[in-house]
Write a structure and sequence with these properties.
With 138 residues, the protein is an all-alpha fold. The chain has a domain of 95 residues: Four Helix Bundle (Hemerythrin (Met), subunit A). It has six helices and no strands. α4 runs antiparallel to α5. The longest helix is centred in the middle third of the chain and has 36 residues.
């Protein structure tokens, strides 16, 4: 993923801006926040089982997608490491890297949506409050 980092750095240098705040922050919940607060949230056994299954399935999917992404990045690195680079071939390979990244991000978003949907409205509100308390200075 080194080449992806270089591309991001180049894009940042060109734009000379700070990266924007994550617009989804606060709308979705990290899985570890749900796991760490499961008693406070009063998760039912069904909710816990659903979350465990979702987590296991998602981890397997993320692993496969990460392999695909790493393979695409490795091929791009090989292409751009040549003395003379075929621009068209490198651009096509970059598209494969970007598509693989998109798949990873899509799978992550779908997982986070499933997690949120598994919580009741009251549990979501309570989790937001718990997360806010843990962020505020003491």
């Amino acid at each position: 993923m080194k080449i992806v980092g270089i591309i991001v750095l180049l894009g940042s240098a060109i734009q000379a801006q700070q990266p924007p705040e994550d617009p989804l922050r606060g709308a979705l919940f990290p899985p570890e926040a749900i796991m760490q607060n499961q008693q406070a949230l009063g998760l039912s056994d069904d909710q816990k089982n659903t979350l465990k299954i979702d987590l296991r399935l998602s981890q397997a999917k993320f692993s496969l997608l990460q392999w695909k992404l790493e393979d695409a990045v490795e091929k791009l690195v090989t292409l751009v490491s040549a003395t003379k680079i075929d621009e068209k071939t490198a651009a096509e390979q970059l598209d494969k890297v970007l598509n693989a990244e998109r798949e990873v991000k899509r799978a992550q978003l779908q997982f986070l949506i499933r997690l949120k949907n598994s919580l009741t409205a009251a549990q979501q509100t309570q989790l937001r409050e718990l997360l806010q308390k843990s962020k505020s200075p003491r």
